[in-house]
Amino acid sequence: MDHHFFHSTFNRALGSLTLVVVVIALLSYAYLTLEQAKHANNMPSTISVGGKGEVLAVPDLGQFSFTVQAQASTSEEAQGQSATKMNAILAYLKEQGIEDRDIKTEGYNLVPRYRFEERPCPINTFCPPGEQIEDGFEVFQTVTVKVRATDKAGAIIAGVGEREASNISGLTFTIDDTDALKAEAQRVAIEDAKAKAEILADQLGVEIVRMVSYYEDMGMYPMYDTPVAMEAKAGDFMSPELPVGEETTSVTVNVTYEVK
Fold first, then answer.
1. Is-above-0.70 flag for pTM?
2. pLDDT value of position 242
């Protein structure tokens, strides 16, 4: 066989094969493009709207903390004095209708006290520091109280102060059942989104088929808060005026609807 003829035949066959591969690739690309266009045309039309719901509520729960402090020469005496003061305050709180579940001990500490005893020191000589000597014990007990009758919070704080509590602080007003407020704000937000979607669909000349997605953002924003920090002394404590203000629970939603 002629060598030149073999190469010529081989090249023609290779060229034909290459052409076939190119044609197949182009046909595959065209088919894929048509399928993508078909899929895109089958995608449903949608509209997205936002809705917002706000609910105002007066806080129905007050909370504050206080500390009882006692010191004595022995730990037993210090603890006994602390217990006497604390029991008097707890009895008063229960008289005011505060339940056991709303009184919580946050901390109890019994610590030794020390004093420095100065040593005699000759004039014009180096004086070492005084000696640290144990000088009794001190007790600190901190309690947090929830007041559900918020209109009585000021009087209750005054009563606690008159019974030798100290460091009365942290009075805040909040909503006890926040879940109910969130549910109501959520309902208002969804109704707002539905109303906007119906108006928009009417303006566009389409009909709402179904909801396809939903997103929610929830936050609580206190409109008025009353933190109170005060040092109480027995027999020298006035009942403060404590406005509770309002809290706003806000829910924002985004809803997407399929239309036709």
1. no
2. 61
